[in-house]
Design the sequence.
C-alpha cells in the first residue's frame, strides 16, 4: 500500500511544475523593442558628441578625451598599416605590371606602324629618286634622238642566279616592240625580248644571250659588252694593242653601217672599266666592266621607243 502522504507529494510536485511554466522567456517583440531602444540611445549619443565637438572650442575636456583616445589607438593603427602595407604594395605592383604590359603592347603596335610607314616613305623616296634620274636623263644631252621614253614599273625580278630577266608594266599597248632598249636613270640595263599587251620581258646585260656594241669614250676603242663569270660584265673583242684604262667610261656604239642597224642607239651609258688584264694565251684584253645601273635593284625603268619617221 502507498504511504498516506503520497497524494500530498504529488500535489506539491504538480504545483511546482505549474509555477515553473507560468514564468516564460521574454517574447521576440520585447527583445526587438530593447534593441531598438539601445540603437536609438547610441545614435542620439553619437549625434550629441558630434554636436558638442563642432561647437566646443579647439581645447577642452572633450578634445582631451579625443586626443587620449587617438593616442591609445595609435599603436593599433600603426600595426594595422604595417600589416596591410605588403598587401597594398603587392596590389599596386600587380596593377602597375598590368598597366605596363598594356602600355608596352600599345607602344609595340605604334612602333610597328611607324616602321611600316618609314619603310613605305623610304620606298616612295627611292621611287621618286629613280624617276628624277630618268627625267634628268631624258632631258640630258646624252639622250638619243628619235626616241621617246616609256616609263614603267618593274613588276617581277630575277628568280635565281641563272635568271637574267625582269618584267615591266608596259607592253604593246604603249608602243613597245621586240629589241626595244631599256634604261634607268643611270644607264643601260638590257632589251625587250618578249612583248605582251600590257607587259614585257626584259633580258638584262648579264643574260648569256646579250651582246651590246660599246665604245670607250676616252680612247675610242670598240668592243662588245657581254656577260662574264658570275654576274660580271666584260668588254670583249678588244685587241691587245688597244689602250683601255681603269675608270674609262663605256657607252653604246650605235649603228656603224646603215645596212646593219644596231639595236641600241649611240651614247647610252653602260658602265666603267673596273680592271684590265692581259693573258699570253688569250687573243684579247681581259676588260672587266662595272655597270652604271644596279641590275640587282631595279624599280622604275624607261623603254626607248622609236618615234615615227626614224
Sequence:
Amino acid at each position: 500500500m502507498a504511504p498516506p502522504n503520497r497524494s500530498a507529494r504529488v500535489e506539491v510536485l504538480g504545483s511546482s511544475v505549474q509555477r515553473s511554466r507560468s514564468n516564460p522567456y521574454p517574447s521576440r517583440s520585447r527583445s526587438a523593442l530593447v534593441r531598438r531602444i539601445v540603437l536609438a540611445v547610441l545614435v542620439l549619443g553619437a549625434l550629441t558628441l558630434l554636436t558638442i565637438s563642432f561647437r566646443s572650442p579647439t581645447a577642452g575636456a572633450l578634445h582631451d578625451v579625443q586626443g587620449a583616445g587617438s593616442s591609445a589607438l595609435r599603436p593599433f593603427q600603426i600595426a594595422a598599416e604595417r600589416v596591410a602595407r605588403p598587401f597594398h604594395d603587392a596590389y599596386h605592383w600587380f596593377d602597375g605590371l598590368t598597366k605596363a604590359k598594356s602600355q608596352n603592347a600599345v607602344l609595340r603596335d605604334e612602333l610597328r606602324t611607324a616602321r611600316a610607314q618609314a619603310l613605305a616613305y623610304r620606298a616612295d623616296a627611292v621611287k621618286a629618286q629613280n624617276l628624277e634620274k630618268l627625267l634628268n636623263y631624258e632631258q640630258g644631252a646624252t639622250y638619243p634622238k628619235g626616241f621617246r621614253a616609256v616609263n614603267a614599273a618593274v613588276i617581277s625580278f630575277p628568280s635565281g642566279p641563272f635568271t637574267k630577266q625582269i618584267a615591266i608594266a608596259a607592253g604593246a599597248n604603249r608602243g613597245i616592240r621586240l629589241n626595244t632598249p631599256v634604261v634607268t636613270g643611270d644607264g643601260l640595263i638590257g632589251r625587250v625580248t618578249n612583248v605582251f599587251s600590257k607587259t614585257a620581258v626584259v633580258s638584262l646585260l648579264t643574260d648569256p644571250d646579250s651582246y651590246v656594241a660599246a665604245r670607250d669614250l676616252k680612247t675610242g676603242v670598240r668592243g662588245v659588252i657581254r656577260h662574264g663569270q658570275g654576274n660580271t660584265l666584260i668588254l670583249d673583242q678588244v685587241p691587245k694593242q688597244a689602250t683601255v684604262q681603269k675608270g674609262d667610261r663605256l657607252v653604246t656604239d650605235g649603228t656603224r653601217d646603215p645596212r646593219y642597224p644596231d639595236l641600241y642607239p649611240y651614247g647610252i651609258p653602260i658602265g666603267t672599266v673596273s680592271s684590265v688584264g692581259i693573258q699570253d694565251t688569250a687573243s684579247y684584253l681581259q676588260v672587266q666592266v662595272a655597270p652604271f645601273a644596279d641590275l640587282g635593284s631595279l624599280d622604275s625603268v624607261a623603254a626607248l621607243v622609236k618615234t615615227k619617221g626614224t
